[in-house]
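[Automated response] Your request has been received and processed.

Submitted sequence:
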Amino acid sequence: QVQLVESGGGLVQAGGSLRLSCAASGHTFSIYSMGWFRQAPGKERGFVATISRSGDVTDYANSVKGRFSVFRDNAKNTMYLSMNSLKPEDTAVYYCAASIFSPISTSTRDYAYWGQGAQVTVSS
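Generated structure:
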């Protein structure tokens, strides 16, 4: 079993940038494909980005393509989400998640392990 902890959230103005981190412990990080999801108030949790075990395959939600970038450092047991050109509609709680599904998945159903979430607020 793997434990996940997100960090790096906060308040930023529209057009600004943030980088989220997801630190893993408790199990071999590199055996998991990883994902980022987000949930805004009153909405379902939705897919943001995913990355394969080795980091060579990624996918993004259309709403963040060209603005967000996901990457991982298996030596540090950490995944990152770099967010640029942030918009007010990006405001949400961001969750990282781990899956044994390979190579990647965009479905919450394929992820067994979740972090506690990090709040990202983008002001207009």
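Summary generated for your ticket: The mean pLDDT is 97. The chain is about 0% helix and 50% strand.
If you did not submit this request, please reply to this message.
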